[in-house]
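Handout, page 2. Input:
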Amino acid sequence: MRIELEKRTGVSNLFAILSPLLALALTLVFGAIMFALLGKNPFSALYSFFIDPLLEVWSLHELAIKAAPLILIAVGLSVCYRSNNWNIGAEGQFTIGAITGSILPVLYPQWQSPMILPLMLLMGAAGGALYAGIPALLKTRFNTNEILTSLMLVYVAQLFLDWLTRGIWRDPAGYNFPQTTAFNESAVLPEILESGRAHWGIVFAIIAAIVLWFMMRFMLKGFEVTVLGQSPRAGRFAGFSSRGMVWFSLVLSGALAGLAGISEVSGSIGHLQPSISPGYGFTAIIVAFLGRLNPLGIIASGFVLALTYLGGEAAQLSIGVSDKVTRVFQGLMLFFVLSCDTLIIYKIRIRFGRGSNTEGAA
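Output:
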């Protein structure tokens, strides 16, 4: 018996539009089954997970805080994936961006100036871009697989952050806690509204999504990304550079991940510590695909995935489930998003024996 995927002769536009909603519905159904197996009331559990965090103003601010890095990272990844360059290391670029952007407030805490925050943001974006340039260089120079190199560099970045915060950057007056000195007021990303903690990181994320949507929709560079992603050979005939696209897409996604890193540290945490991310760089991959690699769709999917983080924290307190439930929901969502998109384009055929007789199709 052999299971094959056979491309459909026509793709339903209706199902292509409804695919993310179907994936979300399937995630909720299987999430309810999971809660029932855990001995929890599925309806009250889903209410605690997805509705309860939206009922208070302060939790809406927290939702914006968690959505900001997801959207920023995911819109950069969408350009990578649409150009057929697979950056899996945004978590590492996020971390390096946080480190490089924190150089000024950590090493020069006495410097207070209106210039320090813009410089921090630029240094964070530059750090993420340079770190993403490593897999770009390895791919263009040595034809190395960027999936492996970008992923392995995540652990290098995390260990480097751990070494800094426990070593040479540790606050000598911090009672031996592994963290740097607190950023001064000039180095803190300000809040948008007085009613909560939401900072300007969410504004950066939405602006980045709109700009990249405009680029992909109306500019030659967006057309180049699409053509090289779908057919490198056609792109070469059009005069587009595949190597140049590797550099452009990886460096752009790295810069946005780095900007997300320093925005998170400056706006939400206020200092560097060994753990600055609950896995934003990896979750952003789900955000990108749930948004169908469309920057505007990513804004909506970013808030949905941010809700899983916030709901997971609320569910731990209200119904006493593990924090791993959040990961399960995110994994289910990615699985169903990819499954639904695959089954829209392909149908499953089951073949028996050596011949070509088809026993079943779906």
